[in-house]
Design brief:
Strand content of chain A: 15-25%
Helix content of chain B: 55-70%
Helix content of chain A: 40-55%
Number of helices of chain B: 2
Oligomer: heterodimer
Distance between the termini of chain A: 35 Å
Strand content of chain B: under 5%
Largest interface: A-B, 40 and 40 residues
């Protein structure tokens, strides 16, 4: 008691930026005139004390930043800064010290940041915990033999503490029981509320009549343990939801349109057919349309899984979701919003989702079996004792209340949340985010794994394969040309050349020809790097760029997609677990076959359309298999939504992440296989916990039924079972 | 039995102080980042005075 104020005082300097940041943020929100920047960045890779210090130190050093505070639980940092500071600056700063960061939309996040509901639950836990301890002190005196007036006094004091506590702390249960009741259902919360109310009112009655037994301690203890379970449950969901919101906040969809010759930025939703949209290199195409000006190449791997860039020029029709690679394009919108191909894909997802039958969680199944049984038991105990004692109402009600209290699902209420919290905490630490509470249970049932190729098993980032075969001179020229281009292939080439220690040749008059490549002058010779048809080389079947040096035979530089780290381990681990592994891609035969062979996947399909992917998943499901779909593209979305459980990497498109149950935050794919193992264990623990609760009821219920249950027995059994269940959950390795 | 007349109010008062302290800590956001707080204790970055 004496140590704690000291400790908290000593801790305050380091905890201080938050106490200062929080009120100032509130003042700002109240509406001070020149608004300071309040930025929130997501930090998926932060995990330790060093990360906190590094990030905060770097941000504090950034000019214009007033305060920065990392929240490691949520993996994000909130920054208070002067108005001119932008998120992009800060992301750059963090990138230089090796931390990946994404901007988040503070508007979307406000609800989870203050976390009102979580605090509210914690407050109720605090109140009921306080009441429980005080009442327990008094109850112990009663159990150890306080008599007559003393006992009554103790009961009265207990009641004075317990009644307001129960009224305040029990509200979440009462409210949810009432909503369920109005909807005509008996949820888990109805027996809980009934037990709390009955225990309290009987105790009041007994106290008034100087009875021996009062159940105030049981009523409060019940509330306390169940609130803990409720809080754990909430916590898991809040973390998942806030992270899902973060991901949704990552992309702010806007388009630049030409209106009367001027560029105007509008939300993508406001585009109408006929608008002229400017698309800069590197930007995503916001709506279906036809190119009217400019040439470039587009990357449609997210849409179709194809890894080869596609040429685009006047007259070419592009779909929403493709990424413009080299030159600026002007597009006349032919279909936007509802009619666009993006939206048609979303319809496909909706169809797949509605076809997926709703999964009933273990907890729901337990509650469904449990509620009627408890009421039946309690009611028949009442009836039996009314008959047996010849109408002793007080005794009969006492017994039926004791039955309700004893059977009340303290352990049952903790059985699932405790395990899910332990498991999802473990998975979160290894970089997996469970978006849906039942995903863990579904993951445990998986027996078939379907992988997408581009962007999932591979990084979706090409790497030159045959640089070593090139003459050193040509390599130096290629490096020089590649350095000057923003094309992904050129950038990959430049990077690899740098890694090999190639010194770029001195090439002058560099000029990018959008959609074709880049050319320049090397001494007196014209050199080009780009598409095969532009250079005059034979077009191949694999991703490649071509180098021509005037007067020499053109050279091809082939690219292969880099394997995602952990892909091999994940596939091998799944195979070792005895799961059937599929590789399904929209890419060409050659590339898919290569990868399948490299990873040892026997079942693979190439050139698959989005509908066919979804159909494959559906067929497997119809054949009685539980499919885990891992994918990232728009073309995977329908399959992700239709699968028993689905995982997508954080780099995936919005729609894919929304459709999947689990999001992989890091780059490494290994945790996916690990997650399946953990989920199997977690499921086992949940079942064990149900077993423990059941066993405890089997022992305690007969005691209550024959009328031997004292408040002491109820308190003992309740706390023992709750603690056993929680400890069992912590055993999860 | 007279002892009860003070010991009970005292125990309630002490418990109540603890409860108020908990409310205070909750409102000041001290439970917002449990994981970060447990790591921050290892950080050598602190100063003797609260930052203003």
């Amino acid at each position: 008691m004496t140590a704690s104020p000291l400790l908290s005082e000593r801790a305050s300097p380091s905890a201080c930026p938050a106490c200062i940041a929080a009120p100032s943020a509130e003042r700002l929100a109240a509406g001070a005139a020149p608004r300071d920047a309040r930025l929130i960045l997501s930090l998926p890779t932060a995990h330790c004390a060093v990360c906190i210090t590094d990030v905060e130190r770097a941000l504090h050093r950034h000019p214009g930043v007033r305060s920065a505070r990392v929240n490691l639980t949520m993996k994000r940092v909130s920054v208070d800064a002067e108005p001119q500071v932008t998120a992009a600056d800060l992301i750059g700063t963090l990138d230089r010290i090796g931390y990946e960061a994404h901007e988040l939309d503070p508007g979307l996040l406000s609800a989870t940041e203050t976390d009102k509901r979580g605090r509210d639950l914690l407050m109720r836990i605090g109140v009921s915990g306080f009441a429980m301890m005080n009442i327990m002190l008094l109850s112990i005196s009663v159990w150890s033999g306080a008599e007559a007036a003393t006992r009554d006094l103790f009961h009265w004091i207990s009641g004075a503490i317990a009644l307001p506590t129960v009224l305040f702390a029990g509200q979440p249960f009462f409210a949810s029981a009432w909503t369920a009741l109005k909807a005509g259902r008996l949820g888990m919360d109805f027996p809980i509320s009934l037990a709390i109310v009955l225990a309290s009112s009987i105790s009041v009655f007994e106290t008034m009549h100087s009875g021996h037994h009062a159940y105030f301690d049981a009523a409060v203890m019940l509330t306390f343990f169940l609130l803990v379970g409720r809080y754990l449950d909430y916590r898991t969901r809040a973390v998942a939801r806030s992270a899902a919101e973060e991901l949704a906040a990552l992309e702010v969809p806007r388009a630049t349109i030409l209106r009367d010759g001027a560029e105007v930025v509008v939300p993508v939703g406001d585009l109408v057919p006929g608008d002229l949209v400017r698309i800069r290199p590197g930007a995503r195409i916001p709506a279906d349309g036809e190119v009217v000006e400019g040439t470039s190449e587009t990357d449609r791997s997210l849409l179709t899984g194809e890894s080869l860039p596609v040429w685009a020029g006047p007259g070419v029709v592009l779909s929403a979701g493709e990424v413009n690679l080299t030159g600026p394009l002007t597009l006349r919108v032919t279909a936007a919003g509802r009619d666009s191909s993006l939206h048609r894909m979303a319809d496909l997802v909706a169809a797949a989702e509605s076809a997926k039958n709703k999964y009933t969680s273990l907890a729901e199944r337990a509650a469904r079996a449990y509620s009627p049984l408890v009421h039946l038991l309690s009611f028949s105990a009442f009836g039996f004792w009314m008959w047996q004692t010849g109408g002793d109402l007080r005794f009969a009600v006492n017994i039926s209340a004791a039955v309700l209290i004893i059977t009340c699902p303290c352990a049952l209420g903790l059985a699932v949340p405790a395990v899910v919290t332990a498991a999802s905490g473990k998975l979160f630490r290894s970089g997996l985010l469970i978006k849906d509470g039942t995903a863990l249970e579904r993951l445990a049932e998986v027996d078939t794994v379907v992988f997408d190729k581009t962007g999932t098993l591979t990084m979706g980032a090409p790497e030159p394969e045959n640089l070593a075969d090139l003459p050193p001179e040509a390599l130096a020229v290629a490096a020089a040309l590649a350095e000057a281009s923003g094309h992904p292939l050129a950038r990959a080439l430049a990077e690899s050349a740098r890694a090999l220690g190639v010194v770029p040749a001195s090439v002058q008059d560099l000029r990018e020809v959008p959609g074709y490549g880049i050319e320049g002058r090397w001494g007196d010779v014209r050199v080009r790097l780009g598409r095969a048809d532009w250079i005059g080389a034979e077009p191949g079947t694999v991703t490649a760029t071509h180098l021509s040096i005037e007067g020499q035979v053109p050279l091809s530089i082939r690219f292969a997609d880099r394997l995602r780290p952990g892909a091999e381990q994940a596939v091998r681990a799944f195979a070792a677990q005895g799961k059937q592994v599929w590789l399904v891609s929209g890419d060409v035969q050659g590339a898919v076959a290569d990868l399948a062979q490299r990873l040892g996947i026997a079942d693979w399909r190439a050139g698959v359309l989005p509908q066919e992917k979804a159909a494959l998943v559906r067929d497997l499901t119809a054949a009685g298999r539980h499919v885990l779909m891992v994918g990232d593209g728009l073309n995977d979305t329908a399959a992700l939504a239709g699968a028993h459980v689905s995982v997508s990497p954080a780099s995936a498109l919005d729609a894919a992440r929304t459709a999947s149950d689990i999001v992989l935050l890091g780059q490494d794919l290994t945790p996916v296989a690990e997650a399946v193992r953990i989920s199997v264990k977690a499921r086992k623990r949940i079942k064990e916990n149900f077993g423990i609760s059941f066993l405890y009821n089997v022992i305690a219920v007969p005691i209550a039924l024959v009328g031997l249950a004292t408040p002491l027995a109820a308190a003992l059994a309740m706390s023992l079972s709750s603690i056993t269940v929680s400890l069992n959950a912590l055993r999860l390795k | 039995m007279e002892a009860l007349t003070y010991s009970i109010p005292i125990s309630l008062l002490l418990g109540g102080i603890g409860l108020l302290a908990f409310f205070w800590a909750l409102r000041r956001g001290q439970f917002d980042d449990p994981k970060g707080d447990s790591e921050r204790i290892l950080s050598t970055e602190f100063d003797d005075k609260p930052k203003s």
